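Supplementary Data S3. Sequence and structure tokens for construct A.
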Amino acid sequence: MMKKQNLFLGGILLFSILLNGCTEARQTNPEPVVNEFFAFSTLITQKLYQENGNEVIEQTQQMLRDKEQRLSLYVEGSELDQVNQMAGIAPVQVSEELFEMVSVSKRYCELSEGRFDITIAPLSVLWGVDSEHPRVPEKEKIEKALSLVDYRKVELDEEKQTIFLAEKGMALDLGGIAKGYFCNDVRELYEAAGSIGWISIGGIIYNHGTKPDDSDFVFGIRDPEDPVGVAYVGTLTAPEKVISTTGAYERYFEEDGVIYHHILDPKTGYPSESDLLSVTVICKDGGLADYLSTTLYIAGSEAIENYRNDPRFEVIVIDKNHNIYCSDSLKGKFELTSEDYQLYE
């Protein structure tokens, strides 16, 4: 028997705990403007404190919907779909935006030594965790799909601005970087509009400016083992940065009493068997935060010490023993509030 989690549930739960954990000051002037909509198969929420907040929210919403139509794996005829359809046949000339996203993503694939791989689409589609009919594929089908996963076969021609997938059946999936990457575009829009507030794209948060009382926005980090999704382990301030969290609780399904989550390991073809519960990455670059939270989750605890105090970003890592590892620079920014977890010094 199979029991599927709601397609959007992971993002909503992450959003709920991140933002219900806020200690936002109540201000009567200006009144915050809040908006929610769906794009890229996830919930997107904005909350802005400004007189023209509705106008900025509408601009942001239109920008993200346009990107979905052009860059989504699941939109027939999108730029990305055209590249995938022409795999093994011919290069496809693409927009500067898609070319840059794929170029950056391929570099991340190399840096991760294949733990992050943008050609994972054949496996993503096969498992269908984000679809209405998730399933555990037959071993032979997993092996066949796995043979098509190899970022080194993505050929980029910078002069012609073309992308070519060298083998028929290959396909790109930018889901591991897109939400964070688009936070960078939102930052530019907010800066131009002088916005104060935040956006959550599937639980990936970017906050801009300070609250009307000049204090920082405060967010809660979800307890990854809370089945209801309303408890959090601590609170965090991260002004002008993107907060990206990856955990197996976000999207999953159950079959024959076994839970299968959405974080597929490109080396095995199966959901990652990480010894971590969740990884949160905080940094200016949303694409880097999105990529790293997934990659470090798959890498597991062996990667903690190597990346715990990397100057490019900060991390909050929770392992299965309820230890929380934080970057030293987060002292005074992250506060543990749960008695069920302990900070590892």
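Construct B, processed identically:
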Amino acid sequence: MFIKKINQLPLSLLLILALTLGLAPFVPEPHLLQKIRMLLRGTLHKPLDIFDLFMHGLPVLLLLLRLGTALLGKQEKTG
């Protein structure tokens, strides 16, 4: 059910969201990269930082899921 909903999302919309919201703000450093670094260092503690990671990472995650399900669907049909 969840995969069907993701596959209904337009790929172009997900790409635009991932590039804009996922990389915002562009200067001095995208929040997503900053929050991933904080997560890897173990310094991601504040609720606002966790929300930022979720908000900026969700479009990228949805895009990856959409691409992954599309690739798996093609492999199942050819294999």
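Residues 32-74 form one domain. The first helix runs from residue 2 to 8.
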